[in-house]
Amino acid sequence: MPAQASGDARRGQIELVLLDIGGPVYDDAAYRDALQRATGDLLAERGEELDEARFQAVYDEFRQRQSGSLRTAVAAHFLTPQDREQLSERAKRYWSYPASALHPDVLPALRELAGNYRLAVVANQRQAVLEALRRDGVAEFIDIWAISETVGVEKPDPGIFQYALREAGTPAEHAVHVGNRLDTDVRGAHRVGLRTVWVLRGEAPPHPTPEQLAEPDVAIRSLAELPEALRQLQGLGG
């Protein structure tokens, strides 16, 4: 699927590419499975059993809506809203990215991008994700790190995007954020003046609507399409 730019895509030189981790780099199934396992644990402790098909339906509904917290939605549907923090802490025990979770298009795309742009990670993740990124050869391409556990704020808070821009010394008009969520990635980045590339995998909706597709500056399905999408945003693409 070729990159598609919205009609009002802003033009101008891009110097810095901000990159989300879950979805664009690693398969989001790793977090979904951790949350499902944690939910099953908590239900089992109460003598109940998790309906896995229903869990997937809730997950897909959340993806389609592109709004709110998955942990909150799962707690409300299967436990109680008050169980959200306990669910979150339990899920952390199981949340990790095996090497097999790395999308095969990531390293080739980063090799191509690294010669033309500075690269930053802006992600709602624990600091421990750095171990997986080093193991899998991703970290060597990254110039700027903005991990929520370290920065102290999570997307869509403007602070985490602004932190990365300050660290890079790059104004927002010369940067673009690449992520797979409308609420945290696309809308959050737009609030600070960043252009956006929406990666349609992971927690992106199973069936994006025309209205959703109009929100980012460009929508792609693979990071193999990212170099051309960035050229297109700068008025250099086909």
From TrEMBL:
UniProt KW Hydrolase keyword: yes
Biological process (GO), any one: small molecule metabolic process
UniProt cofactor(s): Mg(2+)
Stored PANTHER family: N-ACYLNEURAMINATE-9-PHOSPHATASE
InterPro entries: HAD-like_hydrolase (IPR051400), HAD-like_sf (IPR036412), HAD-SF_hydro_IA (IPR006439), HAD_sf (IPR023214)
Record protein name field: Haloacid dehalogenase
Record's signal peptide: none
Keywords of this entry: Hydrolase, Magnesium
Superkingdom of this protein's organism: Bacteria
Organism: Saccharopolyspora rectivirgula
A molecular function GO annotation: hydrolase activity
One Pfam family this sequence matches: Hydrolase
Record keyword Hydrolase present: yes
Lineage: Bacteria, Bacillati, Actinomycetota, Actinomycetes, Pseudonocardiales
